[in-house]
Amino acid sequence: MNLLIIILLITSLLLTRVALLKTAVNIILIQSFMVALACGIEGMEAGELHMYIAAILTAIIKVGIIPYALLNMVEKLQYEKEDHPILTVDASSIVACIAIVLAYGLIDQALPGADSRDALATAVAMTLIGLLLIMTRRQAIMQIVGLITMENGIYLVGLSVTKGLPLIIEMGIFFDVLVAVVVLVILTRRLKLSGMSTDISRLKKLKG
Amino acid sequence: MRELLLLALFIPILTGLISMFLVKTVSIKIVNLSGSILTCFVLSSIIYRIGVQGAFCSDMLYVDDLSAVLLSVVAVLTVTSMFFSISYMEKELLDGHITFKMLRRYYGLLNLFIFTMISVLIVENLGLMWVSVEATTLASALLVAFYFNHSALEAAWKYVMVCTVGICLALLGTILLYYAQVNVVGTGVQALSWLELKGIGYQLDPAITKLAFIFILIGYGTKAGLAPMHTWLPDAHSQAPSPVSGLLSGALLSCAIYVIIRNLIVVQQILNGEFLQYLLISFGVFSIGIALPFILVQHDIKRLLAYSSMEHMGIVILGIGLFTPLAIYGALLHIINHAIAKSALFYLAGVITQEYKTKSIMRIKGLISTMPLIGTLFMMAILAITGTPPFNIFISKFTIIWAFFNEGRFILGAGVLLLLAGIFAGMMYYCLAILFSRKPKHKVFSRNVGKPALVSLILSTSLLVVLGLFIPSWLNHILHKAVRIVMGG
């Protein structure tokens, strides 16, 4: 479990440093795989069937379908990459480190004595790093990656505080995540099709 | 009752699916009109049954008088938006803005959107409620992006990103609430069940519940367009096709408020009332305050209406935040009134922009002489939305402000009144500019507005007047019972 947590933290930190869209999608693939694994391990410890199902669903949706759709999209965006993020790469790495410290502080404040302190703090840190990516990256794909990191983080919070939600709700959440990414990919594709860059920061017609 | 609820979910889905496969415009029209009337009929009978039998619960479905209030909003708006869509989209098709394929997609998505909103209102479980709210975002996102041009894509991107991030925070809050529940009763089948949470509300851990509610309020508040999480709202409302803007503003924002109220009912049992009051009232005042300057200097007619929606959601949250029976009564009534008035306004704006081919207020001139009927209805709706008697919004706004003065919150009440006066001035200024300025030099082709659209517009405006003059006793009854539910009874 500790190894998983370390890998999850490393993937989140790496995400703040990449410029190539393809690398980012591959990292998110590894990250989602770790989340699925964590879910499976928790299931093994608790001996609950529904956790296995959740783990398999995570694997299918977040390791299979979503990265596949994103990689497909990235293939078509040959000239796009995250050149000049709003916050430079080094600065965002530092902010991400601060986020990790903050997450530990927050957990100790809000839920003192929780038995899975490290997992919880990692989860909160991932949520914050995801938010950071969404706010400071220009490329559409990078923002989607940020969103998935955030979802992974929140999913991990659920996993570590309550051993996951009831299955029917979890299935709803998986479905929603899937559809959200599909909708975002459709929008990205349309941006590309209408001859525009997928640089979101250039979309600033609507004001006031 | 269970069959009725399932039917209410089933009809929109079926209508949407059928419309996706039809090959003629006429058949799409007939299917969607009858679908919307059927949905409205089923929803009305659900509301009637709630009035007679009281709350109903079965497995995952639950309806009570609070849902009935919101269901009435969805029932009315389903019919008006569908009737208006028929004419609006026909004209878009004629003008060559859309293709037949897009028309089918439009009706498919619109019905899906209505389905997701109904499901928000009739599920019992707070987790499933979250799933449905997120589903409303996704169904409506493709409607916002419907024209797939530069600004529509920008609006849709902002909409999905801001709302999904917001809603993720709401999920975090919901998980924390579940954690609080598990600490009391352990993991059971009743996870996140609203009825159970309501029953054990006073046993929850206050610290965790407080954290949970803050996340929930921020999350669903994003969806309800409360400042400062409102940034998606004006863009999405102005770029969506007009019937969709009406639904977004009238029904979707209200559904988000509904979810906040459901969570509030649980947490108010254990949390300090003053803390909740400060939290909600400051969100409310802030939303009204932020909307004011944007209303005063606005160039786009649909954005003007969008900012006004923000203001009205602020007023509703103010009423709920005050948490006295009178204020909650006013807030619930305000949800209904605002939905009817604002959807009518968006439809009217749709007619106007189609004729003038612009959304810029500066270029829409002499409406009363180019289109006398539409002009008159527009004036009535603007007078209604700014809270002028004898229209319905006056009653609910007055009730909420009255509740403030009743509680001795004079400064707050007076401050809100001052902001509302500013908004009144702004809205009236633009309304008069649109209506009575000199006719434009270039000719505006004022074709006749389609019959279905006229039906929907006249239905909405007559409701504005009728609800302003008296509140039917059944509605009053349901509202009073809903107030009792919100107060925790």
Compact description:
The complex is a heterodimer of chains A (208) and B (489). Chain A is mainly alpha-helical.
Note the overall shape of chain B.
Answer: globular
Low-pLDDT residue intervals, each spanning 5 or more residues of chain A: none
How many separate domains of chain B?
1
Distance between the termini of chain B: 23 Å
Low-confidence stretches of chain B: none
Domains of chain A, number: 1
Largest inter-chain interface?
A: A-B, 40 and 52 residues
Helical content band of chain A: over 70%
* Structural class category of chain A: mainly alpha
Number of strands of chain A: 0
Task: Give me the Rg of chain B, rounded.
Answer: 21 Å
Please trace the helix and strand order of chain A, writing H or E for each element: HHHHHHH
Number of helices of chain A: 7
* Apparent shape of chain A: globular
Averaged pLDDT of chain A: 86
Proportion of beta-strand residues of chain A = under 5%
Tally of DSSP helical segments of chain B: 19
Adjacency order of strands in the biggest sheet of chain B: 1-2
